């Protein structure tokens, strides 16, 4: 246990001296502290900007739809949590639809998602979306080849209609390396507080990595348009990926690159 010199502590009058003292006595690593401080500071600033934009969305009756897709354990849930943390909860909804019911399975594929589209003044965030049919469903054989191809042909026109009707559509794809995914899935298994995150399909994410990759590449090729591009964030650092997500959302809402785009972000259009 660290020992403290009362005389030394009494001489400290400035914050920087406190930090220096803690570092010298092996209590604190300044670099790690600064990294966390810088992240939290930038995150807060971006959350404030997003909240101000929400005021405008509410006032002007705009409709915003944000789609979060990505590989398993890429950090979608954590990012969505930070995005919504300080927003007006009455005007933001997170939608994570379960497996289709028997009735829904007999409907047009987009039908159950249409019910969840944003109302005037509202932000809706899809934690996974109709794009299940582009990647997850074909990877695991949950849809036929014909159903997959039909979806891929229909989705660009479907999204064009949403945008033409005034919906602001933002599509984010979070990607990680195979090695990083393996580490995060391992952590989920070992951490009792994270074990609820492990699904049946997550356990096969590593085994089917290459199959996933093929469908993801096809996703960008077939469903990215100038009106509705995919914004891919490829970063193993969760904090940097979260900040990048905020910047992309803010830029899309203001209609310009107000926030500097990071080098690990790819715009597919």
Automatic annotation (TrEMBL):
| Record carries keyword ATP-binding | no
The residues covered by the Polyphosphate kinase-2-related domain are 37-258
What are the BP-aspect GO terms?
phosphorus metabolic process
EC id: 2.7.4.-
Family annotation (InterPro entries): P-loop_NTPase, Polyphosphate_phosphotransfera, PPK2-related, PPK2_PA0141
Check the record and name the Gene3D superfamilies matching this protein: P-loop containing nucleotide triphosphate hydrolases
Q: Which GO terms describe its molecular function?
A: polyphosphate kinase activity
Q: Which UniProt keywords apply?
A: Kinase, Transferase
Q: How does it assemble?
A: Homotetramer.
**Protein task:** Uses inorganic polyphosphate (polyP) as a donor to convert GDP to GTP or ADP to ATP.
According to its UniProt record, which protein family does this protein belong to? Belongs to the polyphosphate kinase 2 (PPK2) family. Class I subfamily.
Give the protein's recorded name.
ADP/GDP-polyphosphate phosphotransferase
Q: Which gene encodes it?
A: ppk2
């Amino acid at each position: 246990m660290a020992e403290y010199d009362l005389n030394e502590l009494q001489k400290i009058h400035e914050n920087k001296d406190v930090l220096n003292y803690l570092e010298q006595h092996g209590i604190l690593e300044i670099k790690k502290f600064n990294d966390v401080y810088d992240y939290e500071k930038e995150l807060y600033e971006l959350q404030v900007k997003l909240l101000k934009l929400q005021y405008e969305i509410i006032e002007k009756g705009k409709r915003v739809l944000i789609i979060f897709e990505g590989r398993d354990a890429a950090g979608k849930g954590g990012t969505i949590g930070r995005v919504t943390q300080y927003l007006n909860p009455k005007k933001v909804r997170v939608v994570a639809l379960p497996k289709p019911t028997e009735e829904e399975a007999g409907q047009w594929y987009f039908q159950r998602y249409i019910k969840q589209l944003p109302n005037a003044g509202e932000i809706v965030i899809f934690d996974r979306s109709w794009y299940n049919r582009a990647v997850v469903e074909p990877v695991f054989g949950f849809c036929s080849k014909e159903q997959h191809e039909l979806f891929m042909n229909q989705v660009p026109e479907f999204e064009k209609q949403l945008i033409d009707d005034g919906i602001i559509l933002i599509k984010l794809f979070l990607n990680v390396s195979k090695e990083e995914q393996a580490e995060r899935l391992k952590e989920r298994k070992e951490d009792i507080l994270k074990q609820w995150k492990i699904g049946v399909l997550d356990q096969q994410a590593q085994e089917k990595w290459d199959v996933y990759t093929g469908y993801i590449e096809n996703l960008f090729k077939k469903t990215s348009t100038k009106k509705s591009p995919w914004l891919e964030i490829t970063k193993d650092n969760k904090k940097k990926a979260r900040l990048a997500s905020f910047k992309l959302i803010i830029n899309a809402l203001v209609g310009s690159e107000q926030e500097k785009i990071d080098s690990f972000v790819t715009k597919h259009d």
